[in-house]
Design goal:
Blueprint (H helix, E strand, L loop, with lengths): L5 E8 L9 H13 L4 E6 L7 H10 L2 E8 L6 H17 L4 E4 L7 H18 L2
Parallel strand pairs: 1-2, 1-3, 3-4
Length: 130
């Protein structure tokens, strides 16, 4: 019987100079870990913070992970996702040829998520209206 490779989820955020900026993303990692304890979940950053994408993937691969789902925590498909991410992934795949790396669309492409944001925005407005 062929054994499936160990899998992981790698959340990818932009990064910022202020370390507290990453706190909401760390909460997402923690929630996923609590709800799905059998799946390894990590967080990486495109710039300004560590680990960067290449380091996070190298660490996962060294830990026996054979398949990674990269989830860009971006609201829109800008230059980082259209240009920078594919270039980075091409280089990473050359260094880890046996590793399967799948990339989802940006979270902002999810209609469920944008609907939830719109509902939250309206609830905020209502809570402040006289």
């Amino acid at each position: 019987m062929i054994q499936k490779p160990a899998t992981a989820i790698l959340l990818l955020a932009h990064g910022a100079r202020d370390p507290s900026w990453a706190e909401p993303f760390r909460r997402i990692v923690a929630r996923l870990g609590r709800k799905h304890p059998g799946i390894r979940v990590e967080l990486a950053f495109l710039e300004l913070m560590q680990p960067d994408l290449a380091s996070a993937i190298a660490s996962l691969a060294a830990g026996g992970i054979g398949q990674i789902t990269v989830v860009p925590l971006f609201l829109a498909q800008g230059g980082h996702l259209k240009e920078d991410l594919p270039r980075l992934l091409d280089d990473i795949r050359r260094h880890h040829p046996g590793l399967r790396i799948d990339v989802t669309s940006a979270i902002g492409d999810s209609e469920d998520l944008t609907n939830a944001i719109a509902d939250w925005v309206f609830a905020q407005h209502l809570s402040r209206s006289g």
